Amino acid sequence: MLTEVPRPRKRLMELLLRTAMEKPGSEEAARRALASRAWGLRFFRSPQQVLPSPDGRGAAGVRLAVTRLEGVGEATRAVPTGAMEDLPCGLVLSSIGYKSRPIDPSVPFDSKLGVIPNVEGRVKDVPGLYCSGWVKRGPTGVIATTMTDSFLTGQTLLQDLKAGLLPSGPRPGSAAIQALLSSRGLGPNAEVLGGVQPVSFSDWEKLDAEEVARGQGTGKPREKLVDPQEMLRLLGH
């Protein structure tokens, strides 16, 4: 039942059900009647292959594997049933996948799963270090899932703090991070240390303004900068 599922999944399902079942108002119904195209969601399908057009220059369809759900709760996963389905289409938009990467040799990392091994957010074998989000559980869920997950890691940290498991006293904070990044980006050892080039918030504001300016010329909210080297050149790094 919907009332028994975790809160993030419940919120998502409520949104999907409300969108799918509520009847549109008169203005929205009239707009849809005049629309040249419509869209919908097709569940229990996993894309396997883009089918080429006869001339090989475009897309003619997508081959989908029919799936079913196995498992309970957050452990539920979609698995192939063996059945396939071809969906005709003339345009395919790819979605970029995500996989976390190790950040430092001192932090344990599971390269196969793309996560930091942890127990309730506590990084294994590294007392005082915590993780949250996709690096904690893998790239699954929605914003509400990640938000709730962060709350849980925060509660774990507070429990350890109250139990006296974390060091007390003044900490260097962001100043130490800035000094570390600067040391790795400058000097003769920069390449060995990773070639880090720190970018400040004011630097980000410059890039943001540049993206907006480029987008105005093409009628878009912004034109994304995707080349890190171009970003650094614009910042004079």
Plain-language structure description:
With 237 residues, this protein is an alpha+beta fold. Helix content is 35%, strand content 15%. The strands form 2 sheets. The protein has a 3-stranded antiparallel sheet with strand order 1-2-3, with no helix packed on it. Strand 1 and strand 2 form a beta hairpin. The relative contact order is 0.06. About 3% of the residues have low confidence. It comes from Saguinus oedipus. InterPro entries: FAD/NAD-bd_sf, Ferredox_Rdtase. Keywords: FAD, Flavoprotein, NADP, Oxidoreductase. Its cofactor is FAD. This is Ferredoxin reductase.
Summarize the structure.
It comes from Saguinus oedipus. Keywords: FAD, Flavoprotein, NADP, Oxidoreductase. The protein has helices spanning about 5-20, 25-35, 135, 145-160, 175-185, 200-215, 230-235; strands at about 45-50, 60-70, 75-90, 120, 120-125.
The number of helices is 7
Which percent bin holds the helix content? 25-40%
Measured by DSSP, the beta-strand proportion falls in 15-25%
Name the average pLDDT: 87
Rounded to an integer in angstroms, the radius of gyration calculated over CA atoms is 24 Å
User: How is the main sheet built?
Assistant: 3 strands, antiparallel
**What's the count of strands?**
5
Shape: extended
Keywords: FAD, Flavoprotein, NADP, Oxidoreductase
Region (Disordered): 211-230
Protein name: Ferredoxin reductase
Cofactor: FAD
